[in-house]
Amino acid sequence: MEEKSFDFKTILGFVLIFVLLLWVMNNNKPTEEELAKRKAQQEQAAAQAKNNEQATAVATMPQGTTPTDSVTLAQYKATLGAFAYSASLPSAQGGVTILENKDLKLTISNKGGEIQEALLKRFETYDTLPVYLIKDKNASFALNFVTTQNQKLNTQHLYFEPSVSEKDGKKIVSMKLKTSETTFLEYLYTLPEEGYMLDVAVRSQGLSRVFLSNEPISLNWELKARRMEKSVTYENRYTQAAIQYENQKITRLSQGGNDDGKEDEVHWVAYKQHLFTSVLISDTPFAKGTFNSENIATDEGKDVKFTKNFATTLPIKPKGGELSESLHFYFGPSDYNILKQYNEKYELTDLIPLGWGIFGWLNKWLFIPLYNLLAQYFSVGLVIILMTIIVRLLLSPIVYKSYLSQAKMKVLRPEIEEINQKYTEPMKRQQETMALYSKAGVNPLSGCIPALLQLPVFLALFNFFPTEFGLRQKSFLWAQDLSSYDAVLELPFSIPFYGSHVSLFPFLASVAILIYSLMTMAQTVQPQQPGMPNMKFLIYLSPVMMLFFFNNYASGLSLYYFVSNLLTIFIMLAIKYWIIDEKKIHAQIQENKKKPKKESKFQQRMREMMEQAEAQRKAQQRK
Fold first, then answer.
1. Contact 468, 367 (CB under 8 A)
2. How far is 113 from 187, CA to CA, in rounded Å?
3. Torsion on CA atoms 366, 368, 369, 373, rounded to nearest 10
């Protein structure tokens, strides 16, 4: 076996590598100047990091605190420019001021000078908690402007100095953002002894040289709508932003999803939360405004606390370099009778969606006065029933006309069936049928016209009941709240388009609709025509749609439809058995057939059109 030994060349190689490494290490060693430079850079980076931390601390200061560190305080004041004076006042340590009357309690914060809480004293949420329209930083009211020193400021982050006074029975809170003892930006809040209207004056004194004149001043008002009612889906459906703009026109942002808007000459902006509302009003219209509504409630459940995000931006134009805006806030119920008190100046009832055209007219001049009258003497549940009885009695002549037409059609049914069996050609069959109607003096459309006349009443009440504040938290029979659904059974699962509960009034209304539809079909059913929809299918579809659609709706609305259809059934039975005699109708029809009939122009044109169409069809068959 060969014995291994170290080679001289190998040893020399290792030595050279070692020497090379020593040379590289010594050559790359930093000089004294480089070491000093690195140390300076590290110290500068540390100082910058500290400054960033301090700046972050200033930007994220919690409410009620001001910088205590001398460097941070100096930086904070440097960002405020002329308004640095406000940071040295006692009010810069935070605090709140209470402004309240019999109906409303407002908590106004020194920071931002804005309303921190708005409590409606007389009401509770569905789970018996106080009704706060503003709470837990869900709202902001702030001015954005640029100073002559080029600072971009938002009043939401600045500290105002409060003072409280009283005049003519009205309580007044002044919040001043000062640049000196005699120059300031002021929010002046004035609240009467009762009611939900708050006056807000936004004005400045001695700031004409502080505001940068060529930069716009904007007012930003935002609100995250708090949940108030049992059904999130139903409440969210009627939660919307409404804007009154030029010539008292009203626009509403989308109720369901997200929406943006832009209008000129804005008089007021309302954030309507189904049965409560927050409104910002200006005595002098804003030149323009931009608006945004964002839906944030996607499902049901007790954990859902908010429904929509609202945001408004309005420009404010200084007068002579100073601000002088006369504004008002309404924080209260969306009650037509309360809002009507302010109609002379602001037409606030327009924020309630009562329906357009004749539907809104019926609600405004008929159903709301009728409801108010009955509500003075009866409970809400009985008021709905009495309203239904009155409406059905007023519409009973129309029901009579409709049923009379159905009875005539029923009498003619054997002859119509005979025509259908005798003629196979659709055109000829139609001509003979129309001729029979003409001889008998029967108008096949006379049964449809009464139904159309009832449609405005149906749609008007469809808008009335969901928006009537008087139904809120009023019970009737098993329904605990007539403004919400009347669940009698909670399901351990959720059915698509139906929900996770069973409401009884929609079920009863669906049964009543089914019975009414079957009675109507028994009077008017005709042999199935080719290409025509199956009427039996439609009859059964209508109650099912009612059951699914109204399961989450206000039980007061379902109660109305149930009682309405029940009364209609009784009226139809009364007409059938005590008013209309089908034998007399048959005799009258036979008598009409004997009389010579003058063909109307409409009937003549219809006959000529059918004859022309028949002639064209035969001509095509010959080809």
1. no
2. 7
3. 130
The greatest distance separating any two alpha carbons of the chain, rounded to the nearest whole angstrom, comes to: 144
CA angle 251/255/256 to nearest 5° reads 145
Question: Which pLDDT tens digit goes with each residue over 437-486?
Answer: 666 656 666 556 666 777 888 889 888 998 999 999 999 999 999 988 88
3-state secondary structure 4-33: CCCCHHHHHHHHHHHHHHHHHHHHCCCCHH
- DSSP bridge pairs for 100: 105
**Least confident among 12-26, 288-302, 461-475:** 12-26
- The DSSP annotation for 547-604 comes to HHHTTTS-HHHHHHHHHHHHHHHHHHHHIIIII--HHHHHHHHHHHHHS--PPPHHHH
Three-point CA angle 364, 367, 369, nearest 5°: 75
For residue 195 the two structure tokens come to: 């009611």
User: What pLDDT digit, counting tens, does each position of 198-228 carry?
Assistant: 999 999 999 988 888 888 899 999 999 999 9
From the CA atom positions of the chain, what is the Rg in Å?
A: 38
The first and second tokens of residue 458, run together, are 């149906």
User: Distance of CA 308 to CAs 228, 273, 281, 304, 594, Å?
Assistant: 12, 9, 21, 11, 69
356: confidence class by pLDDT, cuts 50, 70, 90 = confident
State residue 428 phi and psi, 5-degree precision.
Answer: -65, -40
Q: Which residue has the higher pLDDT, 292 or 616?
A: 292
